[in-house]
Amino acid sequence: MTARLGVAWTIPEKGIAEVAGIPTDLIAVFSTRRRQILSALRASGRSGPDAAQAACLATRPRKTAAEPEQTLHERWAARACEAGHHPGQVIQAVLDRTRVPASPPFDQLAQHLLGSAGLTSHATGFDRRDLLQALCQALPPGTTVDRAWVEGAAEQVLAHRDAVRLATRSPAGPRWSTVGLLIVEQTALGIAGELQDLPARVVAADVVEAATAGRTLSGEQQHMVNALTAASGLAVVVGPAGAGKTVALAAAARSWAEQGRPVSGAAVAAVTARRLEHGTGIESHRSPGYSLPLGGPTRAQDNRLDYPPAGPRGGRGVHGRHPHPGGAAHPHQERWRHSGVGG
Questions:
Q1: What is the DSSP letter of 276?
Q2: 7 within domain boundaries
Q3: What whole-number distance in Å separates Cα of residue 166 and Cα of residue 135?
Q4: Tens digits of per-residue pLDDT, 252-262?
Q5: How many domains does the chain have?
Q6: pTM
Q7: Among 14, 104, 131, 329, which has the highest number of CB atoms less than 10 A from its own CB?
Q8: What beta strand segments (E) does the chain contain?
Q9: Between 292 and 220, where is the model more confident?
Q10: What is the extent of the structural domain holding 288?
């Protein structure tokens, strides 16, 4: 369509792109299957991929005789007009918007896929299926490729020096990670080890009692406050949403403040930092990403290679080479008080 008609495409989401220029409300009008599935999900009160798949099967219409092409076009045109869009104007708006782009150089493509904004931007690993989808999504919309090209490019990415095969497997087969993410994880674990070795600075019991006076805390919340105010340089709290972590953290922060210790908050996302500050009263900011040592990707102005501030805790088996955990950070003892509160 791009080569013949000059059709452009929106940025793909989960491997699917829309034709650029078609009004969003018109797309919604013709998304009848989506409305059926969403309606079935609301009626069932369920959510998630399995529920969506079940709703898709339950609402799938029976196969009927094919509608004549002329009748089908007339019905579609009438529906578009009812939505306030003349078919001729819609067609003119989508034609001749772009030309077929050239495929990007492989090194540039691999750098993106194996960088912080690529395959591991929201996951700690990927399999071949993830790679094929990400590869197609990374190509400029309208790029002319075939199956052989995509599979060949995927093999080159997996053989790249920045791709690391993991010992773990998924139902889809082997999994890989990236040198950059493994360095970030190892650096985070190194910092965690250093923080755990710091001497504990216990807040006096009467200070904690004064900070929590007049506030109703559950036994778990009080235990969390006591643990945080008696911890060394690192304390990690894990609990489900709604467990009361924020309330307990606010009480711990008041205890630290009463002792005259500065308290600050950080979060990966700015919106999370704002929620943390609103819920606890702790001045919070978005934490900056990591910039790898010389020889690795560096921060770009568009943040395409901006590494997230932490990877998951715990080690993972790696096949073959092990990246050197260079660039270890050395936090100042008085400034680092990490209270990880995760859901």
A1: H
A2: no
A3: 20
A4: 999 998 888 88
A5: 3
A6: 0.56
A7: 131
A8: 126-127, 163-170, 173-178, 234-238, 265-267, 284-286, 338-342
A9: 220
A10: 199-342
